[in-house]
């Protein structure tokens, strides 16, 4: 059985937020979301006491829940506001999805691992998180059906920037994507016009790979 959320957990979350502030995270809304979300419930109960370390952990299917600093850094770069439509590639445990929900976004998210997709779809509503749409499929294609998006966040390492993701951004929209093969460079694209994109790079991070389907 999953453990509950207790005052002890809340205390550990506060310490985690202090660590993130020390590492340079400034966005109050992002910090508030992390202070609130019971990260330990997104992981196997066996990790219970470690859930609030600033580390990635396994979540099954060879995947990991991203390090809190990485989640905070990417969320901050997205610069979203309440009501913005956001697409996430790589639902995984649903932790980043929950952060986006806390930020007031209309969240769309794609996961290619059936096992994680099913588990997270059932789990998020139990914590009161209701993303607009969770999709089982290939994130390289984005989610054309609901485009354009104000923000797109990729939570796996992409060997290159998938064209559909740029195409599905609205003008003024932001794509946050780690690009490269181990490590990746955190990259932000801002869509300036139909054809122009501004590119900014933010140093190295380590992600599990964004996998490409063979068919
Ligand atoms: N946001 C997640 C991070 C999980 S790790 C969290 O906070 O837990 C990255 C996730 O991307 C994994 O769940 C992996 O299965 C998924 N993934 C990898 N390649 C993908 C693809 N092509 N399309 C969609 N999801 C993909």
UniProtKB/TrEMBL annotation:
GO molecular function, one term: protein-L-isoaspartate (D-aspartate) O-methyltransferase activity
Descriptive protein name: Protein-L-isoaspartate O-methyltransferase
Pfam family membership, one: PCMT
InterPro entries xrefs: PCMT, SAM-dependent_MTases_sf
Active-site residue numbers: 66
Species for this entry: Aquimarina amphilecti
Keyword Aminoacyl-tRNA synthetase: no
UniProt feature coiled coil, ranges: none
Root EC class: transferase
Main location: cytoplasm
CDD domains found in the cross-reference section: AdoMet_MTases
Keywords attached to this entry: Cytoplasm, Methyltransferase, S-adenosyl-L-methionine, Transferase
GO BP terms, alphabetized: methylation; protein repair
E.C. designation(s): 2.1.1.77
